[in-house]
Each structure stands twice: as C-alpha cells, then as structure tokens.
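I'll show one example:
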Amino acid sequence: MQNNRTIGAEYEERAVAYLEQQGMQILERNFRSRKGEIDIIAKDGEYTVFVEVKYRSSEQKGAPSEAVTLAKQKTICRVADFYRMKHGLGEFAPIRYDVVACSKDEVMWYPNAFAHRY
C-alpha cells in the first residue's frame, strides 16, 4: 500500500510530464522555504510559473482544484516571493500561479489559477 507522500510524488511526476509536453521548462521541484513549499517552478515563455499539484482519488471531498484554498494560495505566494528574491527576479518580472489537478484518469491544468495574495 502506498503512503500519501509516495502517491503525491507519483502525481507530481505526471504533472511535470504534462507541463513539459505543453512546452514548459521545469526549473525546480519541491522548492522549500521556512514559510512553505511550492511543488513545481517552471518557465513558460517569459513567465516564471509557480505550480501547485493536487490529487484526489475521488471527488467525494471535492475536486482536486478546490483544495487550493485561500490559505494555501497565500502560502504559495509568500514562498514565491522568497524564490523571486533569492533568484534576483525583479518586482515586475512576469509571474503566474497555476494549478495542476490530477485524478486517477486525467490531468487538468489551470493556468493563472489565482492572483498574488498577501
């Protein structure tokens, strides 16, 4: 039986493969700061994209994309700000927040899923 971490890693792999098929360049995976973690950081044209991957085995508790709550969005934004500072990306560098929602049978990509939250 797989644990949640193993299952999460498996679906992150699927998300990476899907995003690469869409022409995105993966820069980092599981970027951590003391404020939290971002699953995938990628480049899509001029945009640096911060991607949250969500998986649900069924929609009994809602769709995977619904699991990216306002609190989770704020965490992602704080970690993204740290990443931008660490890598010298200016305040006006083009960025985007995407969500990749996985179920057993499909991968759904939501580009520009939410705006920057403080």
About this structure: Residues 4-110 form a domain with the Trna Endonuclease; Chain: A, domain 1 fold (CATH 3.40.1350.10).
